[in-house]
From TrEMBL:
Family (UniProt): Belongs to the fatty acid desaturase type 2 family.
Transmembrane segments: 20-40, 143-165
GO molecular function annotation: oxidoreductase activity, acting on paired donors, with oxidation of a pair of donors resulting in the reduction of molecular oxygen to two molecules of water
KW Transmembrane helix (keyword) present: yes
Record keywords: Fatty acid metabolism, Iron, Lipid metabolism, Membrane, Oxidoreductase, Transmembrane, Transmembrane helix
Fatty acid desaturase domain span: 18-223
An example Gene Ontology biological process: fatty acid metabolic process
Entry-linked CDD domains: Delta9-FADS-like
UniProt protein name: Acyl-CoA desaturase
Length: 400
């Protein structure tokens, strides 16, 4: 075998060294991550941002080349996840399918969801349906990775095959496994959303900002995932750069919230802010009402809080125990029933949640109910609840 042929096999046309190949790997995989989070997720699935047609097609081509994913199918499966979150119909919920199944077999769940064509038609509306989509990207989805394998082999030789294998596994692992799995199983929560979503880290840069999954579930249509001053969303940074280059147009971001001082009675501005930030209101209730009351209960009992009420049961207080097993839910109910003050706080939380989540009520009726709730809370004699109601009345939206 000639030296020239051996050189082509071991290094391809470019003949890059190990560190250069690592740089190529990171560059290619991050472009794929950005294509998923910016185009498929924030633009197509949730309409939070719109991209210049030329850039949008670059994203589409790259996704065809490196993942073989079809835009309509990905969007439909993701929208269904939000619509049916944590139920038996959720395509990839660790609550119903187990963390092991979602983490290690996320690709199988994705393929299973692809087969439900009625769901694809229902949830996949509004995605590209042009000639190249109909004649290439959809009917020949698997051709993209084959072309990529050929390109990698020519450019990088045998190491290019290894590069290709890692590229093929990148999205299945980080998106289907880590985000869909761990993002509903482990991490911290800014918002008490009606699911188990979590933020994996405050700094979303490795998976394009998708690490901030709880923030996303609280505000699905927001193009920006970072919601706290200490959080970072590299996907949002990319959007702002593309916006400066006139290649992107931001359509929606989560509205910021402020608290006005000395508001005597909840008004229309209060209600508007609460409806936009209902998950924040529930989070504030947990932190500023439940936790002080639980600490007082522990102090009176002369016990540490974790022994008085284990963490998993404390979490159940803020979501009606919906994610607890039946025996744990019964244990929590019995514990609450023995403590009148905690029982009162649970009842007030339930009433507020029902008020904010109710559908079909006109604004005037809902505002009247909110005013009554605040008045009764301030007359409850429970200091933490009184302070919460006083603060709640001042909620307002500010420019995002």
């Amino acid at each position: 075998m000639s030296d020239a042929l051996m050189s082509l096999l071991t290094g391809g046309v470019l003949g890059l060294g190990g560190w250069a190949m690592l740089a190529v790997l990171l560059f290619f995989t991050q472009i794929t991550i950005f294509s998923v989070t910016l185009y498929l997720h924030r633009s197509q699935a949730h309409r939070g941002v719109d991209f210049h047609p030329a850039l949008a097609h670059v994203f589409r081509f790259w996704l065809w080349l490196t993942t073989s994913m079809i835009t309509r199918e990905w969007v439909a499966i993701h929208r269904k996840h939000h619509a049916k979150v944590e139920t038996e119909d959720d395509p990839h919920s660790p609550v119903t399918r187990g963390i092991g199944k979602v983490f290690w077999h996320g690709v199988e769940l994705y393929r299973e969801a692809r087969g439900m064509r009625a769901d694809i038609e229902q949830y996949g509306r509004g995605t590209p349906d042009d000639a190249i989509e109909r004649h290439l990207y959809t009917p020949h989805a698997t051709l993209g990775p084959v072309v990529l394998l050929a390109i990698n082999s020519v450019l990088f030789g045998l190491p290019g095959v290894a590069l290709w294998a890692i590229q093929m596994a990148w999205i299945p692992f980080w998106a289907a496994g880590v985000v869909n799995g761990l993002g509903h199983w482990w991490g911290y929560r800014n918002y008490e959303s009606a699911d188990t979503s979590t933020n994996l880290t405050p700094w979303g840069f490795w998976i394009g900002g998708e690490e901030l999954h709880n923030n996303h579930h609280a505000f699905p249509s927001s193009a920006r995932f970072a919601m706290r001053r200490w959080e970072f969303d590299i996907g949002w940074s990319a959007i702002r750069l593309l916006q400066a280059l006139r290649l992107a147009r931001v359509l929606r971001v989560a509205p910021a919230m402020d608290v006005r001082p000395n508001i005597a009675v909840p008004d229309a501005e209060t209600l508007k802010a609460l409806l936009s930030h209902r998950f924040q209101a529930m989070t504030d209730y947990q932190r500023n009402v439940f936790m002080p009351a639980l600490r007082e209960e522990a102090a009176q009992a002369g016990a540490k809080l974790r022994r008085l009420l284990p963490r998993r049961l404390r979490r159940g207080l803020v979501n009606d125990g919906r994610w607890l097993k039946p025996d744990s839910r019964a244990q929590l109910s019995a514990w609450v029933a023995q403590r009148p003050r905690i029982r009162t706080l649970v009842e007030y939380r339930g009433r507020l949640a029902a008020l904010l989540e109710a559908r079909g009520h006109d604004a005037a009726e809902r505002l009247h109910q909110l005013q009554a709730w605040c008045r009764e809370a301030e007359e409850s004699g429970i200091a933490a609840l009184q302070a919460y109601a006083a603060r709640l009345k001042g909620y307002s939206l500010v420019g995002a």
